[in-house]
Design goal:
Layout (H helix, E strand, L loop, with lengths): L7 E9 L5 H17 L5 E5 L15 E7 L2 H9 L1 H10 L3 E10 L2
Antiparallel strand pairs: 1-3, 1-4, 2-3
Helix pairs in contact: 1-3
Length: 107
């Protein structure tokens, strides 16, 4: 198991065009896991789906979330350009209607 690196976190939320389509979910999960396995830069990762929540402050409108940690902002820049990441985007971009990214430096 890789150790969580609190230096830089890259959090991505995906909203699918067809969020209940099981074939789309399988395609996305397979491609995403392959990409992360082959990434030279990602230290740790977490792939999630929204939980059932009744709290007003919880936004459960997304289809998938991804949290990836890096040893530096420069490593995250390398990740953006690496072949594994670009292949994932090409394979899956037709599945989503919206993507939002939150990048954070650790304190």
């Amino acid at each position: 198991m890789k150790t969580f690196d609190s230096t830089f976190a890259h959090t991505v939320y995906f909203w699918f065009k067809n969020p209940d389509n099981s074939a789309d979910k399988t395609k996305f999960e397979t491609s995403l896991k392959t990409f992360l396995k082959n990434s030279k830069y990602a230290k740790t990762n977490f792939i999630g789906t929204p939980p059932k929540s009744s709290r007003d402050v919880v936004d459960g409108s997304f289809t998938y979330s991804l949290i990836v940690t890096f040893e530096s902002a420069e490593a995250q820049e390398g990740y953006q350009k690496e072949e594994a990441h670009l292949i994932f985007i090409e394979e899956c971009k037709h599945l989503w209607e919206k993507v939002i990214v939150y990048d954070s430096n650790g304190i």
